[in-house]
Amino acid sequence: MIRNQLDLNTFHQKYFRPSCLQALNLRLNSYKFFEPFYHQTYDQIQLPSYLTEKPDETLINYFSILREAENLLGRSCGTVGEARLPFPIAYNFLSKEYQKRYSYEAYLNSFAGIGHTSLIKLCRVPDIKGAKKFFYEIETIVSFKGSSAEYFGYSYGFMKLIHQQDGYRISDIHQISEDFLCAPYHGWDHDGEAIVDVKFGNWCKLVKKRHPTIKDGFIKHIYFEGNDGADYCLIFFTLTNGTDIEIAQFRKSGNENWKQIDFKPEENCLTN
Hints:
Layout: H1 8-16, H2 31-34, H3 55-66, H4 86-91, H5 96-101, H6 104-109, E1 114-125, E2 132-143, E3 150-164, E4 167-177, H7 192-203, E5 207-210, E6 214-216, E7 219-226, E8 230-238, E9 244-253, E10 259-261, H8 265-268
Antiparallel strand pairs: 1-2, 2-3, 3-4, 5-7, 6-7, 7-8, 8-9, 9-10
């Protein structure tokens, strides 16, 4: 069955998705979008302004461009997706300041072995300094160099955006590969509730009573009453491999409003 006989979502789910999570980066599917950028280098490209008008839309458009980008390092099965055409376009989503620290060559090399990218989670997260910060998780088809063997890889990380005259731009990217081998045998530090009990309870003697976890999809809110008389809330995101990642901490004393904090039990409790 050829591609144009299927709608994009069905095609994407059938051939590129081992997980049941809905892919979010299914925009910009027409060749007409990419056509003006043929034969242009990254420093010749001017992004259409509609791509970067809103923060979350900017990132969905960014990952939609990268969806069918490939840097397969010698693996050959004919043309794969849009080949390397998307990379110079996507590089222009980075701010000029970030590009000074992150060359195009280094950016392209960061996709070594990647043949397809699905954005499966995207959520703005609180930032104690007020930055526009987003959590993301991606699912990629990865090829071993010099081999026809391929596997699905998962990564997560954080991106920061700044607003410039020509729209939003990415000012920082942080990405971590997920562990599926050791994660099934993981200890307490992969579980949000256990992290609270151990770090804030056993280490810091701060937990008076932990309340039942509130879950909303992959998001966990864990509340506890502190022995200092304050209330605490920790937010965790659950990755595809089951690991909980701490996203933010909040504290409230009495009738005060919740205030974001950055309390490090490793530094404040274990070293004192």
